[in-house]
Amino acid sequence: MDKVTANRLLTQIEQAVKRATGNKYRVQRVRGGFRSEGGLTVKFEIAAVVKGVVEDSARAAFKALAPAYGLKATDLGKRISWCGKQFTVVGLAPKARTYPLVCAGENGRRFRLPLKALGKDWD
Question: Largest CB tally within 10 Å, which of 19, 33, 107, 120?
Fold first, then answer.
C-alpha cells in the first residue's frame, strides 16, 4: 500500500469512528500506521469524554504523577505560551523524559513539550 492511500484510509477510518461514537469519545490515532506489502497496521486510542473533558491515559498519568515532576494539580488545564503559540496542558507522558508535557494546540492537535514550558525544570 502506498503512503498516500494509507494516509487517506487512516483519515477515513478515524472520521468513521468519530461519526459512529458521536461526542461520547475522543478518537486519536496514536501512531501513523505501519505499511507493508499486504496492508496497514494502525493503533488508535479511544477515551471517554466526561463533562466535556477527555479522560485518557495522558490525563490519568498527570493526575497520578504530577508531584513527582514538581507539578501541581492546578497545572492540568493551564494555558501556556511556547515558541509564540498557545497550548493547554492536557496530560503527562512519563516515558517521554525530554518532552513529558502533553499539550493541545488551539486546533486540538496534541504536542509534547518540555517542563520548561510551564516554567519547571526536572532532571
Answer: 33
